[in-house]
Amino acid sequence: xxxxxxxxxxxxxxxxxxxxxxxxxxxxxxxxxxxxxxxxxxxxxxxxxxxxxxxxxxxxxxxxxxxxxxxxxxxxxxxxxxxxxxxxxxxxxxxxxxxxxxxxxxxxxxxxxxxxxxxxxxxxxxxxxxxxxxxxxxxxxxxxxxxxxxxxxxxxxxxxxxxxxxxxxxxxxxxxxxxxxxxxxxxxxxxxxxxxxxxxxxxxxxxxxxxxxxxxxxxxxxxxxxxxxxxxxxxxxxxxxxxxxxxxxxxxxxxxxxxxxxxxxxxxxxxxxxxxxxxxxxxxxxxxxxxxxxxxxxxxxxxxxxxxxxxxxxxxxxxxxxxxxxxxxxxxxxxxxxxxxxxxxxxxxxx
Length: 351
Hints:
- The protein is built from 15 helices and no strands.
- The protein is an all-alpha fold and about 350 residues long.
- Helix 10 runs antiparallel to helix 11.
- The relative contact order is 0.05.
């Protein structure tokens, strides 16, 4: 029994060593050739050979184990050493992180050699990445930008960018220091891109822009694009949402919506937008005034004071004042007399 077990261990070790050697060698050759610039031919052949060798390793060892296991069962039946000797020659499992590292390295060579989203290198990289089960969204704490999940995000991002009219090579995405510039480019390429706020949020996450702050940044950018495009209703909804979340960088959006509402009140608007009420408008101006730049503070303060005066008059039940020039100039005689009569009521409302 001891002699038969020894033969089995020797034969299995030879088979495993030879096949594993071919697999690792093929993978090494693939990466080496790709780094040397032989992307079009050598990498494809090398990577294919590597994957084939890995498949052969798994299949070959499985068949060998079955055959040798049956042979051992016949010769070592009844021996207490049978189980332990069969287990001794089986090759150890490759740690998952090490295996993912090899897959990521090969996929990177394909992906970042691609000149465009429809380059064959992108498809080849995706095929290599599929060797590793998809665990979903990557873990920011232990995953580098070269990890399997990060590379999958790059593949998905460059393809999604095409739907916004942006054609970027994977390596360009990787080398962009401020990934938010890519999101803003999407908004500038298509006038209606702001309507796809949810898709832009998803794209930002694939570009590595995650978390509440990044999500709010995308929403604020959509609101700015909406204001530029004349969609004040869409911008108003976002401005109110971001103000409620106290997202300070969106102060300019809040100010723009409030000022547009004031202008609509003065001109009557075009009937396509119903501005927020005085209370909501006052909230937007207060939010913007508390966070704005020094240059904008005087204008916003004047707007806020004017709105507060209008709210005071409205809450007192007094007709809004009529100006002699129709544009905020001196009060006409009738309006002056009405305000004098309403002075006690206004004072009480203010208190």
